[in-house]
Amino acid sequence: MWFRLRAGPAVAALNRMVLAELGDEPCEVIWIDKGVCLWPETIRRCRKLAKCLVYYTPDTSFLANSSRFFDATISLYDLVVTTKSLEVQQFEKRIPQDRLLLVTQSFDPRIHRPTCGFEEKHDGAVFIGLCEPDRERCVDRLLGAGVPVRIGGCGWDRFVERRKKDPLLHFAGSKVFGEHYVKALSSAQIGLGLLTKRFPELHTTRTLEIPACGTALATERNTETKQIFSDDEAIFFADYRDLASQVVELLSMPERLKGIAASGHRKVWSGDFTNADMVRRVLKVAGVSFPATAAEYPETTD
Description:
By secondary structure, the protein is α/β, with parallel strands linked by helices. The chain folds into 2 domains: 2-106 and 274-286, Rossmann fold (3-Layer(aba) Sandwich), CATH 3.40.50.11010; 118-270, Glycogen Phosphorylase B (Rossmann fold), CATH 3.40.50.2000. Helix content is 40%, strand content 16%. The protein has 13 helices and 10 strands. It has helices at 2-5, 9-22, 40-49, 68-73, 88-92, 133-144, 157-162, 178-186, 205-212, 223-228, 240-251, 254-270, 275-286, and strands at residues 27-33, 50-57, 79-82, 100-102, 122-128, 149-152, 169-171, 188-192, 216-220, 235-237. It has a 6-stranded parallel sheet, sandwiched between helices. A 4-stranded parallel sheet has the order 1-2-3-4. Helix 2 packs parallel to helix 3 (40-49), helix 6 crosses helix 11 and helix 9 crosses helix 12 (254-270). It starts with a helix and ends in a 16-residue tail after the last helix.
């Protein structure tokens, strides 16, 4: 609750901790990662100490994750980095274009990796994420087509209760994080990279994490997913009827499905999609020089 309200003792304690850690020594760069709970006075202190002040967020900034603190301090950053193309115009109303950078989502190669071989995967599809009406419709369509589906995440209780007699539905629980999340993705043949319908996002972290875990990604065909993957690196669909038809066909063609999973895996692991790749790109745009290994896994302040 404190995180959503941006108020309370926890927020005060967070800011005190950050200020204490900052000290008094000037530094080359300070990276603020989704600092929606950092007070303006905390950011001003960062601005005073940092030669370059960078803000990064993988989420929306003006919708569910809006923050009065960020709104009050956005002008203090040398570079603001977002993964949400839908908010570019909102950012450009607040800061000059040359201080805004749009990047793709990224994945952590220390975590998101295959945990089993393709032959060890169970048949069917997996989706781990928040339950939404549109996502229920997707799972319903797949189950109706005879496709086994494993789901996990918050809000699925009513759906699971409604379909509790369906042997094709498997519930991994409401809390699927860390190794549990990676194993759930990696052990399925197809990972559903479903996008939220609460706002018009075009790709999300799952878009990279699923193929990173060695699983064939099924995703909507749009301008951003097409820029990342080719037709042999992902399963593109127009609607859930199309998705179900393709999944049924591919489950009967394991070698073809294995090839899609392998190609998608190579794309994200050989491309510039790891967290470290993203940080290097950001720092290069920001004009910050750094050793080759300096940007591997930056610490965050929030």
